[in-house]
Amino acid sequence: MMIQDIAPLHLDNQYKDKKADKGSFILSFRNDEILCHSNTNSFPHYEELNDPDTIYLFSINNDEYYLTLDPVEISDGEYVSVRTFLSGEVISKEKAYAAFTAYHLDKWYKDNRYCGRCGKGLVHDHKERALRCPDCGNTIYPRINPAVIIGVINKDKIILTRYAHGYRHNALIAGFTEIGETLEECVKREVKEEVGLNVKNIRYYKSQPWGIAQDILMGFYCEVDGDDTIRVDENELKSAIWTKREDIELQPVEYSLTNEMMKMFKEGRQ
Ligand SMILES: [Zn+2]
Hints:
This protein is of the alpha+beta class. It has 3 domains: 11-110, Alpha-Beta Complex (Nucleoside Triphosphate Pyrophosphohydrolase), CATH 3.90.79; 112-143; 145-266, Nucleoside Triphosphate Pyrophosphohydrolase, CATH 3.90.79. The chain is 16% helix and 31% strand. It has 3 helices and 16 strands. The chain has helices at residues 93-111, 183-195, 257-266; strands spanning 11-12, 25-27, 29-30, 33-37, 55-60, 63-67, 77-81, 123-124, 131-132, 139-140, 145-154, 157-163, 173-176, 199-210, 215-224, 237-244. Strands 11, 12, 13, 14, 15 and 16 form a 6-stranded mixed beta sheet that branches. The protein has a 4-stranded mixed beta sheet with strand order 1-5-6-2. A hairpin with a 6-residue loop joins strand 9 and strand 10. The longest helix has 19 residues, at 93-111. The radius of gyration is 21 Å and the shape is globular. 32% of the residues are buried. The site of zinc ion has 8 residues, from loops.
């Protein structure tokens, strides 16, 4: 079950033009860190803070989440990296999903203070999640980067990778879609670039919003076409290895699409 699989809870991201009040969760970020209570990793409520300015984010059932860009403090609080939520179940899954989604929006607000066309300060639109230039009318919507996750299969083996930098557990081949290519072309290009193989029989699996990288991930399985000799791109990957189903070592938490795709193959369901 991936991070967005929180049923019977539901994250409702429809934009509302409203401010936080008593009982609202207030999320505050410093770079890739989020403000939490030290003992529980829970997020502060509005009444614990000194009346910060807030932006409505989304709701999860009856809980409303707001973002503040103001500097805030709580007595027993600290900023913790949102990536620690990937190393084990330190908070509930819906809270981790809320943090990742809020992080994506926080980055977008902080990266878009001025109009890229004319340089004037942007203002928040009141009808939809958008920033608008009061001078030239330029409208900026949240940016979501499309990326693919690829399970390359050869009979009872799949290619597992380890990234050269960052995340240290097993992963699959992955990469960003470039302007002017289809997702299927992206799959072929990324596999060729990262491990030097040709692939065929590309089929879509599932998608996943992945806020900590500001991505929408789309998972595909495919089969190697011809020679299966791996040539690793060492700039991107530390390793890429054909791995038998039973030898697949999964990630520490079941949040990612990558992990689910590895698990499906491990269990013989792909
Ligand atoms: Zn402008």
